[in-house]
Specification:
This protein is of the alpha+beta class. It is built from 4 helices and 8 strands. Helix content is 41%, strand content 32%.
Length: 145
């Protein structure tokens, strides 16, 4: 399967939980880079974008963007207090996302969205925006910027 077809399948699964909340999916790029062929796209609602990327046959790190700030799924679930029970995990050395206990990564992401991310986003959109901003600033500091 191609990155584009895998992204299309993943987006359909994620849409089950995001479309009822007012998000719409927009494919972005299908190309190659130093990491190989990839396809990406975003679920968009107002100023919030949830980015998905498939590199080769592997799910990359989903990212949350609010305005000019962005944060990876791993940082978001950690800041929400769910680092230990998140279903989707990130391996920065292998540059891939994987499901805890062998769970399919796409289903793991859907599970985390339903159980962790959407409740926080719905309870306080402003708080969620601040969380993304805080994670973004922390990542820049960790890079010495």
């Amino acid at each position: 399967m191609t990155p584009k077809s895998l992204l299309t399948d993943l987006a359909a699964r994620v849409a089950r939980v995001l479309e009822p909340k007012g998000f719409a999916f927009a494919p972005d790029q299908e190309t190659s880079s130093s990491g190989g062929p990839f396809a990406n796209g975003f679920f968009v609602r107002g100023p919030l974008r949830i980015g998905l990327i498939v590199r080769g046959e592997t799910l990359g790190l989903p990212v949350y963007q609010w305005g000019e700030h962005s944060a990876g799924h791993d940082d978001v679930v950690r800041l929400l207090g769910h680092a230990d029970d998140a279903l989707l995990r990130w391996d920065p050395d292998a540059f891939r996302a994987f499901g805890a206990d062998g769970t399919d990564p796409g289903e793991a992401f859907v599970g985390d969205l339903s159980r962790i991310v959407l409740p926080a986003m719905t309870a306080s959109p402003e708080g969620f925006a601040a969380l993304i901003s805080s994670a973004h600033a922390a990542r820049l500091r960790s890079w010495g910027l």
